[in-house]
């Protein structure tokens, strides 16, 4: 079902939401005074739509670099008579005090504020406006929300000396939040008195105190009849904590896990503690003890283990205290503990590091709030994908994509996630992936390249892009991917391997694409970038893959694109061509790429006068005798000269070499080629060759064109016969056969 789910199109609701957010002005809004967004007066939207608009907006700002945030976006929801909000999830830097302030009249039921570091104590006051309706509230990682700015002097001069100080707000409590049941205070700032803060809440059902150090949690017993979920991740526990927890008999979910790398913990788990939980917390369906060190052995000796198939029956449990469970747990967190490697674990879902299933469960459970754990879990997945075969590929991919999107600015996750993506998208997994999923991968890879100039992330991202069919699969992000690659190649200090992959990708991206794409990429500075790379390699006297790919990319991007050909000439491309020829006389592949490119330049009538110098004509004439890369270099040199000859004797403005002498060498070269040569060239159109047929000014150009067509249609008939017919080559050849000026051997070949 996962396969089908990932392949089905987006819902109409999602598509409309996305469209409206990207075109607010053209759909829901108009611009007041050219700056403030205002909702059209006749628009009334229910909470189902408004919630989605706000939540999608946050998602787009976070994960789509092209999407522009609007200063006044939240003001669209300021009036509950036209827009209703109920459940919204806001994240990170996107939200500021004035945004919450703008929606204070809404009757919010659920408000999740995750890592919103820009929110200050002003927003605490705004929260009070929602107190009569709020059921769920998360302030996870909002590290400044209990701080207000204090300006002691209040006078101008004093402010310069003594800027605003941050002062902790001590008098705020959840007084009046009569319906609040679910509360997440994870990573709350030190100094806030949690007990006082929470005391007014009548009946809490779920409480998350992740990363908060409390020596006394006795106050939790005031909710012993209502608390069903308690998270104390990374709290240093003691015997007192355990005794309090054991009294919370309604608990269904208990998480006392920790990050074993984060700091020193005195507390060690024992058999007795686990027994206490099993005996007292009879409703428990989910328990997380990840990262804990067991003080004593809690395992059943292996002789007593009932062998046979692994079982989740409590009676067979390899972990002794869990034999007392009434039924298997829905979830058991054992990540980075020795217990996850045991045979019989009485839970339907286990997070751990033993196998793929456990690792995926860990990524799934910890991504949202625990990137430090998630990055280690993704690292384990990376090893599984690299060494073994992933059996739950789609799930793995979707989890890594989610983690990368969620933690765009977390270096560890970007490094491990981008590495895992490389192995999860390679060819052996190709068949199982839908277009939609592969596009999501490309999006997060490009996000990573944008946010991180870090070498490892850049390399992983470039390598992952190489797993896709280029240009087809990258077409939908064509501009963006080219901009990113050019950006990498324009950096002054460069990693060799990244440079090589990036040039390879650039070359692939401009191969076999439409001319408007090539023109657009040319305008981004593609030609200049490639010439700079060539210049650097020349200075180092190295002719490596980067040098060859750069010339190849220039050959591709100038194909039937006069603007790019002109740029090549304007940026001293010919000077580099001559220098490379002189420096690397033996490099056949290089010569072929350079002459292919000059063939493209020579096809542009307006640019040909720039090739009409003694030096260039001599070089092209000498290359007619080249045996480099079969006939390719000689063939391309002859092609360049054929176009120049086609302009007639009157443009031959040089004394040396003589036009007749060059013509003679051209005939000799064409006659030396094997007509059945297999070719290292790819024509998308015959138009530049067909141009040379209906003319009598240069019979040798006519002969070169006829030879080229004859060779291509006889060696590759399936590909080139249809092209010749489609582009009207047949009547042109028939007419030429009747021409008096055409040479006999040319007519023979045409016939």
TrEMBL record:
Pfam families: LRR_Zer-1 (PF25013), ZER1-like_2nd (PF22964). Residues 196-337 form the Zer-1-like leucine-rich repeats region domain. One of its GO terms (cellular component) is Cul2-RING ubiquitin ligase complex. Belongs to the zyg-11 family. Keywords: Acetylation, Leucine-rich repeat, Repeat, Ubl conjugation pathway. Residues 404-750 form the Protein zer-1 homolog-like C-terminal domain. It comes from the Eukaryota. The keyword Metal-binding does not apply. This is Protein zer-1 homolog. The gene is Zer1. Interacts with the ELOC-ELOB/Elongin BC complex. Part of an E3 ubiquitin ligase complex including ZER1, CUL2 and Elongin BC. The lineage of its organism: Eukaryota, Metazoa, Chordata, Craniata, Vertebrata.
């Amino acid at each position: 079902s996962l396969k089908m789910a990932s392949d089905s199109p987006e819902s109409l609701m999602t598509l409309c939401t996305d469209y409206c957010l990207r075109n607010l002005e053209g759909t829901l809004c108009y611009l007041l005074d050219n700056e403030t967004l205002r909702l059209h007066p006749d628009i009334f939207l229910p909470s189902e739509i408004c919630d989605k608009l706000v939540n999608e907006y946050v998602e787009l700002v976070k994960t789509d670099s092209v999407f522009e945030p609007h200063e006044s976006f939240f003001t669209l929801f300021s009036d509950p008579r036209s827009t209703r909000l109920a459940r919204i999830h806001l994240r990170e830097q996107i939200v500021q005090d004035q945004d919450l302030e703008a929606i204070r009249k809404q009757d919010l039921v659920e408000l999740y504020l995750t890592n919103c570091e820009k929110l200050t104590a002003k927003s605490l006051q705004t929260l009070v406006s929602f107190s009569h309706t709020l059921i769920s509230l998360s302030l996870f990682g909002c590290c400044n929300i209990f701080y207000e700015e204090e300006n002691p002097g209040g006078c101008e001069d004093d402010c310069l000396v003594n800027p605003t100080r941050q002062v902790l707000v001590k008098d705020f409590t959840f007084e009046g939040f009569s319906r609040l049941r679910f509360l997440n205070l994870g990573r709350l700032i030190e100094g806030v008195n949690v007990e006082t803060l929470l005391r007014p809440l009548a009946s809490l059902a779920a409480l998350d105190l992740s990363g908060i150090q409390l020596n006394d949690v006795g106050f939790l017993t005031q909710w012993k009849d209502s608390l069903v979920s308690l998270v104390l991740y990374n709290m240093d526990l003691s015997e007192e904590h355990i005794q309090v927890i054991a009294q919370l008999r309604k608990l269904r979910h208990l998480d006392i896990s920790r990050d074993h790398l984060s700091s020193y913990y005195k507390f060690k788990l024992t058999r007795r503690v686990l027994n206490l939980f099993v005996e007292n917390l009879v409703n428990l369906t989910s328990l997380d003890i990840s990262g804990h060190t067991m003080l004593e052995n809690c395992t059943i000796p292996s002789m007593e283990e009932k062998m046979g198939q692994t079982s989740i029956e409590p009676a067979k449990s390899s972990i002794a205290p869990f034999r007392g469970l009434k039924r298997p747990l829905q979830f058991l967190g054992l990540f980075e503990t020795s217990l996850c490697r045991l045979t019989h674990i009485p839970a339907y879902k286990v997070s751990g590091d033993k196998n793929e299933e456990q690792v995926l469960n860990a990524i799934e459970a910890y991504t949202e709030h625990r990137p430090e754990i998630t990055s280690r879990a993704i690292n384990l997945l990376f090893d599984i994908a690299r060494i073994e075969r992933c059996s739950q590929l789609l799930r793995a991919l979707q989890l890594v994509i989610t983690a990368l999107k969620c933690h765009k600015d977390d270096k560890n996750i970007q490094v491990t996630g981008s590495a895992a993506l490389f192995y999860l998208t390679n060819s052996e997994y190709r068949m199982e992936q839908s277009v939609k999923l592969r596009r999501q991968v490309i999006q997060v890879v490009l996000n990573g390249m944008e946010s991180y100039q870090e070498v490892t992330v850049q390399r992983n991202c470039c390598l992952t892009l190489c797993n896709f069919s280029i240009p087809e699969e990258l077409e939908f992000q064509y501009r963006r991917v080219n901009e990113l690659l050019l950006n990498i190649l324009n950096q002054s200090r460069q990693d060799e391997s990244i440079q090589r992959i990036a040039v390879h990708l650039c070359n692939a991206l401009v191969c076999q694409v439409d001319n408007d794409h090539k023109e657009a990429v040319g305008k981004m500075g593609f030609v200049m970038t490639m010439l700079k790379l060539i210049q650097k390699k020349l200075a180092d006297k190295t002719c490596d893959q980067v040098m060859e790919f750069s010339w190849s990319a220039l050959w591709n991007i100038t194909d039937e694109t006069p603007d790019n050909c002109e740029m090549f000439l304007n940026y001293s491309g010919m000077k580099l061509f001559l220098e490379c020829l002189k420096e690397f006389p033996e490099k056949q592949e290089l010569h072929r790429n350079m002459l292919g490119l000059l063939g493209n330049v020579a096809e542009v009538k307006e640019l040909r006068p720039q090739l009409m110098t003694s030096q260039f004509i001599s070089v092209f004439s000498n290359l007619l005798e080249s045996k480099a890369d079969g006939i390719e270099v000689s063939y391309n040199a002859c092609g360049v000269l054929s176009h120049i000859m086609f302009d007639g004797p009157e443009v031959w403005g040089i004394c040396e070499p003589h036009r007749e002498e060059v013509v003679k060498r051209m005939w000799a070269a064409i006659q030396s080629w094997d007509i059945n040569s297999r070719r290292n060239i790819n024509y998308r159109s015959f138009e530049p060759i067909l141009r040379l047929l209906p003319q009598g000014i240069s019979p040798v150009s006519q002969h070169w064109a006829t030879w080229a067509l004859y060779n291509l249609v006889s060696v590759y008939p399936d590909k080139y016969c249809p092209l010749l017919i489609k582009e009207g080559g047949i009547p042109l050849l028939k007419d030429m056969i009747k021409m008096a000026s055409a040479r006999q051997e040319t007519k023979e070949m045409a016939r």
